[in-house]
């Protein structure tokens, strides 16, 4: 057997560079790295040797580097991924939030944090977390609950099993998620005689699991007997590349489609079977369908609480739930009739079983009327009084009027995710939202990842001032790498979304908007100057009309553009005829009358909650 004598770090890098997609590209497109003790001497040396065979990119923060990698994988529909490496200690634990984000969203991500010495000779090393009762624990054990696969590499030969396991997880649609290979720093530098065959190129096929024919038959019978079925489009439709299949299925069988955050834009908003967003941040046209549905058919969705209105949305007393998913855990949730299988394959099989059956029990005019309300709600005002601050809906309208079929709107947290899900009229593939973890700080790093994955699209990043303040440093990375995208920064001087939630549950305005915080002086942050200091093109929009002009001007630049606009913190996007209750527990006892009133409303709403049969 031919062997190659390599350090463990060199072996890892060589293996990563040889793992291919069915399209002949590297599955791991490259490695984001911030070096420190724990990865600079081992992995750093190996990555430098690799050069363009496995490119290395430097970011500004371990968490946001990982956010970029996650956004890239999401935009690539999970067909490619990136790796991220850090030193031990804070460099590693900075990535735990990103691991949780990828875990919740079922997205492939390879994390390679450095770890303490496997031989323990110099213990305790700088940044080492010591457990008084367990000598095997390090800070990297924090990754265990937020990794789909976790391994600690304490011997060079561990890579022979750990690396194939890692790729199995990242390329399996049912188990897809983050992998953490905790790499002891002395092990990285140790040499081993690896089989040469270990480094031969390998193509990883992303499988399409076939559904059980009995399950398909059962669901077909349910559809035939239903009078008002509805399809709930989740992210699994996108990852399965089942967009056209879903459109054909819905049209042929007369079953309207409503959207989750992850499934939005699988069907273009203009598609006649797309009735819009469902749930808490849902459209009137979609929520009325959901409330009346006697059969709810989820396709590739986790049935998150925003989609289901905290399980109070589907009100029909005899309604049944179907869940089509590659993961049995998701397929069998909440008493659903589960079909375990790939979304595209399952819809094809189901359509064949249904034959010419057509439901057709819905009002096609409802979506037309709702979209007309959206156009009115998001329109530019002509009667703006002195000192008027625009609503988020008006900001969305401005971006919408500049958009084309190439535009991707992306966001993550605050007011805008709900507003965009409700109001953004996306072309197919024109929406990217991280809302499984609702992670503030994802936006700018994520925008860079989306643009790297889809360089021919125009990426517009919506971010509030609160999220921007949490994580903005990858803006400098995007400038350095000449990755252009447009940031629309809505400044409402605090956490406007949570402030409204606080008020809506009877609470006093407290610690959310800057004006309600315990500070000696109210901040006056110059976001234009800040963004410009990192090399971005930055400008303050005077009003909605100026915002439109600035967005159009940004499309021809080779660097990111940041457009700041002041917005109203006290009013959300408005409902445009939709919206639904969300379960946010209200205190049972309070001296505030407003809280007591909110509690009564809360208890009344709970009566409609129905999580399982």
> Could you name the CATH homologous superfamily of the largest domain?
Thiamin diphosphate (ThDP)-binding fold, Pyr/PP domains
Largest sheet: 6 strands, parallel
Q: Tell me the total number of β-strands.
A: 22
List the uncertain runs.
none
Count the DSSP helices.
Answer: 24
Range of helix content: 25-40%
**CATH class identity of the largest domain:** Alpha Beta
- Alpha carbon gap, first and last residue: 59 Å
Number of domains: 3
What is the CATH third-level topology name of the largest domain? Answer: Rossmann fold
Q: Per the principal axes of the C-alpha atoms, what is the gross shape?
A: globular
Just name the CATH architecture of the largest domain.
3-Layer(aba) Sandwich
Radius of gyration: 25 Å
Structural class computed from helices and strand pairing = alpha/beta
Into which percentage range does the β-strand content fall?
15-25%
Strand order of the largest sheet: 4-3-5-6-8-7
